[in-house]
Design goal:
This protein is mainly alpha-helical and 76 residues long. It has one domain. The chain is built from 4 helices and no strands. α2 runs antiparallel to α3 and α3 runs antiparallel to α4. The chain is elongated and about 40 Å long. The N terminus is likely disordered.
Length: 76
């Protein structure tokens, strides 16, 4: 899927729907590194949208911090 197509898809969603999908993704896959990468990619696309919310922005940075911890644990 190309980025431009992804942006078109996500721009049609309401932020509340995006938040629900994002929360579900985190709650059901907290230990899966692939889903962490997908969630970060997903949220970068959402955050590029002019309709972004502080809630999503805060969750993104929290997710990124947790992802870094997971990577550091793999290196040990």
């Amino acid at each position: 899927m190309q980025l431009s197509k992804s942006e078109d898809i996500y721009s049609s969603f309401e932020l509340s729907d995006i938040e629900k999908a994002y929360d579900f993704m985190l709650e059901t896959n907290t230990n899966n590194l692939n889903i962490w990468v997908d969630a970060i990619y997903f949220n970068e696309i959402v955050m590029d949208n002019k309709r972004k919310s502080e809630l999503l922005k805060t969750r993104f940075y929290s997710l990124l911090a947790n992802f870094k911890k997971e990577i550091e644990n793999l290196d040990r």
